[in-house]
Design brief:
Largest sheet: 3 strands, antiparallel
Distance between the termini: 113 Å
Strand content: 5-15%
Strand order of the largest sheet: 1-2-3
Oligomer: single chain
Order of helices and strands: HHHEEE
Radius of gyration: 31 Å
């Protein structure tokens, strides 16, 4: 006849036995609250605004970038990647270089409008 041995029920966690003193753990001090993250304008607004054809829209995108917390990192990344076009870090890129203003499409007028 086979006898089955039953183990006593233990309320300990499985694993190696504890060593050291049986002093209770001290509660840890609460961690400092996480910094408040502001939403990035390029993630909140329409993404087409940063790659628009019209100069007015690109100027609006530049204005939104002015208060962005990651503006410097965005610009540095765009310069290192030589982004072909768009607004990056508050600057307008065209053909991989930063330009001051984007001209509208089409030929310029021959006669200045009054």
């Amino acid at each position: 006849m086979q006898s089955t041995l039953t183990r006593p029920v233990s309320h300990r966690r499985p694993g190696p036995p504890r060593t050291g003193s049986a002093t209770p753990r001290r509660p840890q001090a609460p961690a400092a609250p996480a910094p408040v993250r502001r939403p990035l304008p390029c993630r909140e607004e329409d993404s087409d605004l940063w790659f628009a054809e019209r100069p007015e829209q690109l100027e609006m995108a530049k204005a939104l970038c002015a208060e962005c917390p990651v503006r410097d990192a965005c610009l540095a990344g765009a310069l290192s990647r030589a982004e072909p076009w768009g607004v990056w870090g508050g600057e307008i890129f065209e053909r991989g270089t930063v330009i001051a203003r984007k001209r509208p499409r089409g030929r310029p007028r021959k006669v200045v409008a009054a």
